[in-house]
Amino acid sequence: MADPVVGNGALHGGPSVEPPHSIAQARVDDKGRLKLPAEFLEYLRELKVDKVFITTVDLQLARIYPISVWKSNENLFSNAGDLAEVAEDVAYIAKYFGGDSEIDAQGRVLMPAELRRRLSLEAQPVWLDCYNGRINVAGKAMHEARFNRALVNLPDKVKTLEKKGLK
Fold it and tell me: Of 25, 35, 71, nearest to 52 (Cα)?
């Protein structure tokens, strides 16, 4: 079966699956499990994803990748050409903080322990959004920073985008 098209991060053809359009709040429990909000779980199930790779590449956001999307990143790392050292460093960080996780019957994934500690995700609320075929997971501090940045000059940002076609 061909890999599906993952929202706005098209992979290799096949049926297109709409990612969630909103940001959802969830929580990482005291055992390190993230209960995926219903719309995110439904999205992954529509893609027939039951195993994911969870990591960070920037030490700011956790990223939940369907395995097929993560494999495309590994391919990029392997074929980085003149960016080989950059790719090797990013891949190293991703592997260090990353781990495979299966989605359990309750719709939970286990966040890697070192990742949880580094990004302060343990027993905390988190915010999820879909982007480029992955699910971003922001801890409270990162969510607040992103939210506050978005608020700065928001009316001007809206006017600028309306000139570009925002409806």
Answer: 71
